[in-house]
Write a structure and sequence with these properties.
The chain has 17 helices and seven strands. The protein has about 425 residues and is α+β, with helices and mostly antiparallel strands.
C-alpha cells in the first residue's frame, strides 16, 4: 500500500483521524451493503453472522492504522486473524468468490460514504486516499485468498487421496469397504463401470501460440467430470487421462437400471459437450466384482474401436458375437494365422471387407471398388488358396468373419 502524499484530508481534518471518528458509521454502511447483496434475506447479515461485523471492523482498523503510520506494505502478520478467518471459511466449504465479493462490496460501500463527506477542495486528497484504499484491498485480498487456498488445498488433498484410495481399492478388489469408510462414502449395491475413449475435438479452434497444450486437456477433463457429476452426483469416482477415462458410477438400488440407455445417454452428452466423438463401454457389478467388470468394459471398448464401430455407448450385448469369437486360446491363434498372407496384399484385404459388407454381393463390391467383377472373383480365389478359407463358400463365411474379428482385435493391441 502506498501512503498518500499529500496527506489526504476530510472535512478539514486528517483522513485517518476522520475515519477513526466515523468508524462505526462506515462499518454500518459496509454491513448494509453486504446485507443488500443477500437479496432480501430474512435477517440482516450483521445480525445473522457476527463474524462478518468483526471482519469489517478489523479491516477498518487495519487500514486506518496503516494510514496513520504511513505503512507502504501489508504483511501477513498485520492481518493474521483475517487470514485465519479465511481458512476457516474454506474449511466450511464457502466458495472463494464469496470471500472476494464481501471484501469488494464492503470496501466500495466505505469509499462511497467517504466520498460523500469530502469537500470540493479536498478532491485531490481523495484521489490519494482512493489509491491507498485500493492498494490495501489488493494486498489484504491477496493474503486472505492465499490463506483460503492453503486450507482448501489441504482439504482437497485429503479428500482426493481418500477418494483415489477407494477408486484403487475397488479396481484391485483390495478391501474396498475399509477404503470407503475412510473416504466417508457409502458403497452402493452396484457400480456402472464406464470406460471412455475421447476422440479429437472436431470443432477445435486453430492453435493459439499463447495457450499451453495442457489447457485443452484440462478443459476436456473438466467437461467429463461435469457430465459424470450431473449424471450421478459427487460419489462418482473417475480417473481421466485424456483421451482415456475410467469411471465408477454408483447405480441406484433396484432392478430398473437400463445399462444400455445410461451408457448411450452419457456418450451423447459427452459428445455434445466436448464437440468430439466419444466411445463409451460399460458393465455393472457389485463393489467386490468391479475388477472383472472393469476388464469387461475395457474389452468391450477395445472391440468397438478395433472393429470400426461408430461413436456411441456399448455394452456386452452389442458386441457379444465378436467378443466370444476373439477369446484367447489356440483357436484364436489359428484364426490369426489364417489371414497372415493378407499382410502382403492390403488390396485383397480391402476387397474381402467390402465383399462381406455388401452381403457377399460381388457386383456391389466391384462397383464400390471401381473394379471388374472378375477382379473381385480373382482376389477372393487367391485368398481362398493362400489362407485356406473361402469367403465365397457359405459354410466357411463364419470362419472368415471370426478371422477378421481376431485380426482387428490383434491389430488394436491390448
Amino acid at each position: 500500500m502506498t501512503a498518500p502524499n499529500p496527506s489526504p484530508r476530510l472535512q478539514g481534518r486528517p483522513a485517518a483521524e476522520w475515519l477513526r471518528e466515523h468508524r462505526s458509521e462506515l462499518v454500518a454502511r459496509a454491513l448494509d451493503a453486504l446485507a443488500a447483496q443477500d437479496h432480501g434475506a430474512p435477517d440482516p447479515v450483521r445480525l445473522r453472522n457476527p463474524e462478518l461485523r468483526w471482519i469489517v471492523e478489523y479491516n477498518a482498523d487495519a487500514f486506518i492504522h496503516a494510514l496513520e503510520i504511513g505503512r507502504t506494505m501489508l504483511e501477513e502478520d498485520d492481518v493474521a486473524d483475517l487470514v485465519a478467518s479465511a481458512a476457516r471459511r474454506a474449511a466450511d466449504g464457502e466458495p472463494v468468490e464469496n470471500l472476494l465479493r464481501d471484501y469488494q462490496t464492503g470496501t466500495d460501500a466505505i469509499w462511497q460514504a467517504v466520498a460523500g463527506h469530502c469537500l470540493p477542495a479536498e478532491h485531490a486528497g481523495l484521489l490519494h486516499l482512493t489509491g491507498a484504499m485500493h492498494a490495501y484491498l489488493r494486498q489484504v485480498t491477496t493474503l486472505v485468498v492465499r490463506g483460503y487456498q492453503h486450507e482448501a488445498a489441504r482439504i482437497r488433498a485429503g479428500e482426493r487421496d481418500a477418494r483415489y484410495a477407494l477408486y484403487s481399492a475397488l479396481l484391485t478388489g483390495e478391501q474396498p469397504e475399509t477404503a470407503a469408510r475412510l473416504a466417508g462414502i457409502a458403497l452402493p449395491e452396484r457400480y456402472l463401470v464406464l470406460s471412455l475413449r475421447l476422440g479429437p475435438d472436431t470443432a477445435a479452434a486453430p492453435p493459439d501460440p499463447g495457450r499451453a497444450p495442457e489447457v485443452s486437456r484440462h478443459r476436456r477433463a473438466n467437461a467429463v467430470r461435469r457430465v459424470l457429476t450431473d449424471h450421478a452426483g459427487d460419489d462418482v469416482l473417475a480417473l481421466i487421462q485424456d483421451p482415456a477415462a475410467t469411471a465408477l458410477i454408483p447405480l441406484p438400488p433396484g432392478p430398473d437400471n437400463d445399462l444400455k440407455k445410461r451408457v448411450r445417454e452419457l456418450s451423447d452428452r459427452l459428445t455434445a459437450l466436448l464437440g468430439a466423438p466419444v466411445h463409451a463401454a460399460a458393465a455393472a457389478a457389485a463393489p467386490q466384482e468391479v475388477p472383472a467388470a472393469r476388464a469387461m468394459s475395457e474389452e468391450i471398448l477395445h472391440i468397438a474401436l478395433a472393429t470400426g464401430q461408430p461413436p456411441g455407448g456399448y455394452i456386452l450385448d452389442d458386441v457379444v458375437v465378436t467378443y466370444q469369437l476373439t477369446r484367447p486360446g489356440p483357436g484364436q491363434a489359428l484364426l490369426l494365422q489364417r489371414l497372415r498372407p493378407l499382410d502382403d496384399h492390403p488390396d485383397w484385404e480391402t476387397t474381402l471387407r467390402v465383399y462381406l459388407r455388401h452381403g457377399f454381393d460381388r457386383q456391389a463390391a466391384a462397383a464400390e471398388l471401381n473394379l471388374h467383377p472378375n477382379t473381385v472373383d480373382y482376389r477372393l480365389g487367391r485368398i481362398a488358396r493362400l489362407c485356406g478359407i473361402d469367403p465365397a463358400a457359405p459354410a466357411e463365411r463364419l470362419a472368415v468373419f471370426a478371422a477378421l474379428y481376431v485380426r482387428d482385435r490383434a491389430r488394436y493391441g491390448p
